[in-house]
Amino acid sequence: MKLNLATLIVLGLSTTVCMAQSSGIKDDFKPSALNQPGQEYPQVNSQGYARFKIFAPKADSVKVSLGLGGRGGTQLTKNDQGYFTGTTEGPMDQGFHYYHLTVDGGTFNDPGALNFYGSTRWESGIEIPAHDQDFYALKDVPHGNVQQILFPSKSTNTSRRAFVYTPPGYASDSKTRYPVLYLQHGWGEDETAWMNQGHANLIMDNLIAEGKVKPFIIVNTYGMTNEVKWGKMRDFSIIPFQTVLVDELIPYVDANFRTLANQANRAMAGLSMGGMETHTITLNKPEVFSYYALLSGGTYNPAEIKDKSKVKLIFLSCGSKENPERVKSATEELKKAGINAVSYVSEDTAHEFLTWRRSLRELAPKLFRN
């Protein structure tokens, strides 16, 4: 029996569909929302599986770092046309994930995906649609503004960068002054993380449109965390960044934006290592911040709070796949000591951006409320 090329293609597609169905994987894959313009891969399906297709005709091996259970990612299979394809062995957690390709031992980004700064390099990004993604979706509501600023830093002998979110109406109302949240990224990331990966501006726009938050300014700057190698976090000194933040950035923001420039209207929060920075700086400088938030970034204990009257809120959060009991128990101890403390656990997430997006959604309405 002779088979022409069209018949072979149809048979091949039918086989692929049958294999997917027999394995329980739904064949409703669509391009990731974070793909480069016009690129079909990577793709995700309604169950949270991710599928990849990489053209590397001269390569012998292509692996995607995105994977499950620490098993080293997803090994792709090469066909006769030089394409490597493969699907994650199970569904991924909902939300944003960094990943890269390992091609014959070398590290590369996926040419089909947009890049995001994480793991101390620009990594490929993929978005697994979340069932509750509406709270960080781009909607037809009034939007705030995110602008880059360069502020002088005598302590580091250079100009440093920060991003400032001002809420809707800031530009048209020249009289209103706003509280400020200084919001820090994690190790391996930089000042672009919270607006790009975290969608902090969209979360705020939506909450403000729904009347759920008192509008405030958000400032993101580089926490100087990546000067220390992973695994040697105990060598990290907070003093250089504390100087940049407290003595240089905050005065610049207060001088150039309409802020309520006092301790009662200033908050600090951070994810992961940014939480460690928040923990240390808020304890070192209780006269600067009155709201503290650690997002997968450790806990406070009552003995650390020397003057409870200066602390309006301590917010602790993590994913349900992290260590939620530690967060819950620490919150209860703070409450027993007469400190206003709140905990939040993000269901079915780990140390990842959906945890932190949800945490910001829960934190924001609790800030700057008398």
Automatic annotation (TrEMBL):
<dbReference type="InterPro" id="IPR000801">
    <property type="entry name" value="Esterase-like"/>
</dbReference>
<keyword id="KW-0732">Signal</keyword>
<dbReference type="InterPro" id="IPR029058">
    <property type="entry name" value="AB_hydrolase_fold"/>
</dbReference>
<feature type="signal peptide">
    <location>
        <begin position="1"/>
        <end position="20"/>
    </location>
</feature>
<dbReference type="InterPro" id="IPR013783">
    <property type="entry name" value="Ig-like_fold"/>
</dbReference>
<protein>
    <submittedName>
        <fullName>Esterase</fullName>
    </submittedName>
</protein>
<dbReference type="Pfam" id="PF00756">
    <property type="entry name" value="Esterase"/>
</dbReference>
<dbReference type="InterPro" id="IPR050583">
    <property type="entry name" value="Mycobacterial_A85_antigen"/>
</dbReference>
<dbReference type="InterPro" id="IPR014756">
    <property type="entry name" value="Ig_E-set"/>
</dbReference>
<dbReference type="GO" id="GO:0016747">
    <property type="term" value="F:acyltransferase activity, transferring groups other than amino-acyl groups"/>
</dbReference>
